[in-house]
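Case study 2.
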Amino acid sequence: MPRKSFTPEQIINKLREAEVLISQGTTLSVMLKKIGVSDCTYYRWRQEFGGMRIEQAKRLKELEQENARLKRLVADLSLDKAILAEAARGNS
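Prediction:
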């Protein structure tokens, strides 16, 4: 079964729907079936996105992507520096 990828907007909407269902007295297992996620996913989403607005979740994802890009850039530059240092040691 392929994994589904949900956007931050979809996740927040599902969490809001879950809150409404629970406040109406729906059991946890029924609520999870209605929103279409496992209990592990629900708790992970609630921990990561609980209490966020859609704009905040979008910004969080953008910052995470930017952070990953910058980490790759630093790793590449560190590798280049190490190669140059090794080459300079070999020339002397």
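The radius of gyration is 22 Å.
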